[in-house]
Amino acid sequence: MASKKKATLFQKAHELTYVVKEVSKDAHGNVTVWCLFCVYKGHDIIEVGVAGWKRKQCSNIQYFTKPFATYKYKSHHEGQHATSWITY
User: Of 1, 21, 38, 47, which has the highest C-beta tally within 10 A?
Assistant: First the structure.
């Protein structure tokens, strides 16, 4: 018998802990959240070729959708907003 994976739902506590905000909910109840560091501070400026970076960083706002695993937030913050994340 195949096991069903349960999708991790968004928790309101994530907003304060991981600096994200719920921006929309569709008719099925699926939530979309965005990174507030991207919205208000932008991405950290890192030179291409320094510290292993091979491409220039994007300037888009990061949206998160289901499943809302906390490692996704942490990975994005550590990679794109390292100084802001450490300070926060």
Answer: 38
Which residues on neighbouring strands pair with residue 22, listed in sequence order? 33
User: Residue 6, class by beta-carbon neighbours within 10 Å (0-12 exposed, 13-18 middle, 19+ buried)?
Assistant: exposed
Domain range list for the chain:
13-87
**Separation between Cα atoms, residue 66 and residue 87, nearest integer Å:** 27
Given this model, what pLDDT does residue 73 score? Answer: 95
Task: Look up the pTM and report it.
Answer: 0.78
Backbone angles phi, psi at 20, to 5 degrees: -125, 160
User: d(Cα 63, Cα 47) in Å, to the nearest integer?
Assistant: 24
